[in-house]
Structure prediction request, 210 residues.
Amino acid sequence: MIENVYRDLGSVTREAQEIYNRSRSYIASVVGNDTPEDRIRQRCVIATGDVDLADILRFKNDPLNAGLEALERGARIYADIKMVEAGVVKKGHKSKVTIFLGKGDDIAEREGITRASAGVMKLKDELDGSIVLIGNAPSALLTLCDLIEGGEAKPDLVIGVPVGFVNAAESKERLRRTDVPSISVVGTRGGTPIAVASMNEIINMYQENK
Prediction:
């Protein structure tokens, strides 16, 4: 941000940039604009239309710097579903985005677990040093926490914001108890817009530093 002008890699036309800047300026005045974390809060509020969301976002173990360093290395980005993958801005960084869903269907069928969770298990050997985005599947986040706690995976950043009423709140609370840098939400709220908004704002900040 320079003199209240906000840049967004996803706004590719003048009108889109003007709309984004007006919205961002308003939200900054509402939720604050003092820290890098405030930028994530602003972006998530815009994505959801929910001002109260700013109060329930949680940042553990310096996730912003962890994300910036991971992008500098070109770390792989893993997402739970295609919708999350599609929302991540693909320019301004070198990181490839891969989804978990569909990668471990043989495991899902054999073990009777969700396809998203099975995908995490299938790709567990690739997760060290990665960025993981989970916006929809609490089962995937719980499996990831199992791997982290067992020393089988060590992502550099987890944006864990699954939405729902079964295991969503619990999975995010469990993530916050790990030593992995993370962004999460308290309670049942969450979803693709929050995961994507958080990641894209980190990408924006990374590009600004180049």
